[in-house]
Specification:
The chain has 364 residues and is of the alpha/beta class. The protein is 39% helix and 17% strand.
């Protein structure tokens, strides 16, 4: 929190905003956050409107529901339709995500047993309460939620629960950031790194961005002051010609991360190539259960078939939004055909989605 000392004698918000302006950063500067909570904080508190001309705040692939591919949604929907005796447990954000075959909300209305849970442990408790039924937990999330899923699998092993399995749709954040830097679509001058994820993986995980791409990073917390201070720290690095990994969220984040959580990831999961909505296949960016836990791997237990999607243009540009190529209001469907009540894509469905944030807080 050493930077906060610079603003101790003034109103913090006004002091930080004045400090940003006094840097006098020239030209167009693109800063990207990789966390849905940052996206909503920036939109909700009007932080974008406090930026000087030329400083653009872009939203990246920080919503786990949003980056889940249409093929994966279709596979889950098809499996739920064909196996109505199986309980599909999922987070609420997943219900309305549309695939080409419909959504989980649609198949629940048709009679499939789809239930909303608030944690993987809730799904395990459901399996314990209903031993005559199979329970498949759809595990979406980044490095923050994967350890909790791993611990839940270990609990299932310990308690001998044999009617519980996990469909692992977990993704890893740093490979997606590398993919963004390797793309020629947009120039990213700095990253606001996700606080929750970095609590697990540690700030050293982003060192390749500074060393290989000369791109500064700041790990920021989620309160408005955290976000503002993180932006100031990034712009200060850019102004001074530095490319370092700085931590604004030092009250939680360490360079090495949560070693216990990382050991759980290493024990339970193997790293695989996986597809991201809007990106295609990203190497070493997904997590699947290791072979020794195959009894709890829903894909192997039930042979959940990957559905091939025949793409037709629906006008939804969630993929472009997730890569920072466009802002939500540059999509022709935004706030007209696509709203939270009638979403055409996951970025409008999820509470962490960029389009959802823009619709609630920045719609004109």
């Amino acid at each position: 929190m050493r930077y906060m000392e610079e603003f101790r004698d003034s109103s913090l918000v006004r002091g930080i905003v004045d400090a940003i302006e006094s840097l006098g950063v020239k030209g167009c500067v693109n800063l990207m956050e990789i966390c849905g909570t940052h996206t909503h904080s920036i939109s909700r508190y009007g932080i974008r409107g406090l930026m000087p001309p030329g400083v653009r705040l872009l939203s990246g692939p920080g919503c786990p529901v949003c980056v889940t591919t249409e093929e994966e949604i279709d596979s889950i929907v098809e499996f739920a339709r064909e196996n109505r005796d199986v309980i599909i447990a999922t987070f609420g954000d997943m219900l309305k995500v549309p695939g080409s075959l419909g959504s989980l909300e649609d198949v629940r209305a048709e009679g499939s047993d789809v239930r909303v849970v608030y944690s993987p442990l809730d799904a395990l408790k459901l399996a314990i309460r209903e031993p005559a039924k199979e329970v498949v937990f759809c595990a979406v999330g980044f490095e923050t939620t994967a350890p909790t899923v791993g611990m839940t699998v270990l609990k299932a092993v310990e308690q001998g629960v044999d009617n519980f399995s996990v469909l692992s749709l977990h993704r890893l954040t740093p490979p997606a950031m590398r993919a963004l830097m390797d793309s020629a679509e947009i120039n990213i001058d700095g990253f606001i790194c996700p606080g929750h994820v970095t609590t697990i993986i540690g700030s050293d995980s982003y060192r390749f961005l500074a060393e290989e791409y000369s791109t500064p990073c700041v790990v920021a917390g989620f309160e408005p002051l955290d976000a503002l201070l993180g932006i100031y720290m990034l712009l200060r690095q850019i102004k001074e010609g530095r490319a370092e990994i700085e931590v604004e969220y030092s009250r939680v984040v360490t360079p090495e991360g949560n070693l216990r959580a990382k050991r759980i990831l290493e024990r339970l999961f193997r790293v695989v190539d996986t597809g991201w909505r809007g990106f295609g296949l990203i190497r070493d960016s997904g997590l699947k259960l290791k072979e020794e836990f195959s009894l709890y791997d829903a894909e192997k237990r039930f042979y959940i078939r990957r559905v091939e999607v025949s793409y037709t243009s629906t006008g939804c540009r969630c993929g472009d939004v997730l890569r920072g190529v466009i802002l939500p209001d540059e999509c022709g469907l935004f706030s007209t055909l696509c709203t939270p009540e009638t979403p055409r894509g996951p970025c409008m469905v999820s509470t962490e989605g960029t389009c959802s944030a823009y619709y609630r807080y920045e719609r004109r």
